[in-house]
Write a structure and sequence with these properties.
Length: 457
């Protein structure tokens, strides 16, 4: 008879090992391996049930659109792909204090007022704390039930008892399945709780939203698998010093991942910003050098943002460069192209570029806006008011076409920007589609920009 071997397993992630190790090879936790009981065959897996399905021809599967419910917030519905899908599991993540709980609470309020039964489980805050937040948002109907609990068994019983259509779990890091001997927030707990929630969502047709924190590096805390398991991953982002918050879907099994929702955090909750361009440009200085408006596409939505550049003589051997709200490497590349192709001494200058309004823009169409704001900052020549620009810059200094140029020009014109620098190719293609009174300046190379910034353009 084969000798029965001692088996070890990691308390943190459940990984097995034939011998004891100081560090778990899987999750890298120290001193987490313990001897497994003799009868242990697999890590405790309470959540995943075994179901037998039979193979069926694809032709017999009905492909009706998913059942969706409006969340009462257009901006949120847009990001979800047109409303909340029945039986979906959504992960809402973002920095602490950004407004995840507020957003979900507001969604619950709208749903419950529309007669939909909602359960809000908070493992982080007491009922009193939730109530204090709720008071800022408004009145709640009796369809909205709160549960301050972090034991998933109790949550499971409540879900089975009251059959809500929507459940919020705030946050996954605070929940525990008591059968597992690892602490809340550990990889094993998160994995098992997520598979339990996933199964509940699919079998009971409940839409479940889980809140997940992000780590210092900006990714969802916990296993990467969490993001793979859920249907939709929403990121709520923004600079906490400005009221603007942007909701993005980084994964969506039921819709596009390009759409964004814009909100503003006010004294009584999050307000939807239906016309983000207006808000992004609020307080923009007029007739100052180093500032221009550019048009960026967020999904199908053109948004106007102001690009600012401060260019001054450096006091160091190595000039300082910072990029706030955009890609640092891209900025360096544009500065190198301008220096080389126009022969201007940017290497003797500190350059600070900022996307005003707290938005982060990384699409290449921003290049021309950055180049013009830097040139305007460098020459100290302001652009005539009402000027916008977009276009991608190549390494040779050429200005390349961008997508949806007409939509961008139209959005600019709507807000009174009647003079647009655009890639030459796009300008040629746009003929006949430009709104009245808009002057299109097609540029094919950065060299052509010089004449417009010499004070008489
Ligand atoms: P919260 O939703 O608790 O953030 P998260 O769940 O992402 O950690 O929001 C916290 C911040 O929002 C807090 O700093 C207070 C602010 N806030 C408002 O400004 N107005 C409001 O109406 C509410 C409810 C919160
Ligand atoms: Mg919260």
């Amino acid at each position: 008879m084969a000798k029965e071997k001692t088996l070890f397993f990691c308390k943190e992630c459940g990984a097995e090992s034939a011998k004891w190790l100081g560090q778990c090879p899987s999750c890298k936790a120290w001193d987490s391996l313990v001897e497994a009981p003799r009868d242990r065959k697999r890590p405790v897996n309470t959540a995943i049930g075994i179901r037998r399905n039979v193979p069926v021809p694809l032709g017999t599967v009905s492909a009706e659109d998913e059942k969706r419910t409006g969340s009462g917030m257009k901006e949120l519905d847009r990001v979800l792909g047109g409303g909340i899908v029945a039986g979906s599991l959504v992960l809402a993540s973002g920095d602490p204090g950004i407004g995840k709980s507020t957003l979900l609470l507001q969604m619950c309020r709208n749903l419950s007022n529309a007669g939909i039964r909602v359960l809000y489980v908070s493992g982080e805050e007491s009922l009193r704390q939730v109530k204090l937040r709720a008071n800022r948002i408004g009145e709640f109907s009796d369809n909205m039930l709160f549960l301050a609990e972090n034991n998933m068994d109790v949550v499971r019983e409540s879900i089975m008892d009251i059959h809500p259509a929507v459940v919020i779990v705030d946050s996954i890091q605070t929940m525990v399945l008591p059968q597992l001997d690892s602490p809340a927030g550990s990889v094993t707990q998160i994995k098992e709780i997520t598979s339990f929630l996933l199964r509940t969502a699919k079998e009971e047709e409940i839409s479940i939203f889980v809140v997940g924190h992000v780590t210092k590096e900006g990714s969802v805390a916990g296993p990467r698998m969490l993001e793979h398991m859920v249907d939709t991953v929403l990121y709520f982002e923004g600079d906490t010093t400005t009221p603007y918050r942007i909701l993005r879907a980084v994964k969506n099994r039921f819709g596009s991942t390009n759409e964004i929702g814009v909100f503003s955090m006010e004294r009584n909750g999050l307000m939807e910003v239906l016309n983000p361009s207006e808000h992004m440009l609020a307080g923009m200085p007029l007739d100052e050098p180093g500032s221009i408006v550019t048009v960026t596409m967020e999904g199908t939505r053109p948004i106007l943002v102001e690009v600012q550049a401060l260019v001054c003589r450096t006091n160091f051997n190595l000039p300082r460069r910072t990029a706030t709200g955009t890609d640092f490497n891209r900025l360096n590349l544009i500065l190198a192209v301008l220096e080389k192709r126009l022969g201007i001494g940017l290497s003797g200058c500190d350059v600070y570029v900022n996307i005003a309004g707290g938005m982060r823009v990384t699409e290449p169409a921003l290049d021309l806006g950055i180049a013009i704001s830097v040139l305007s900052g460098y020459t100290n020549v302001p652009l005539p008011s009402g000027t916008a620009a977009f276009g991608e810059i190549g390494l040779i200094g050429e200005i390349r076409s961008v997508s949806q140029a007409v939509a961008r020009v139209k959005e600019a014109a709507k807000l009174g920007y009647h003079r647009c620098f655009v890639p030459k190719n796009d300008a040629d293609r746009m003929k006949g589609q430009i709104p009245d009174g808009v002057q299109i300046i097609g540029v094919s190379n950065v060299k052509e920009l010089k004449k417009y910034l010499s004070g008489n353009g």
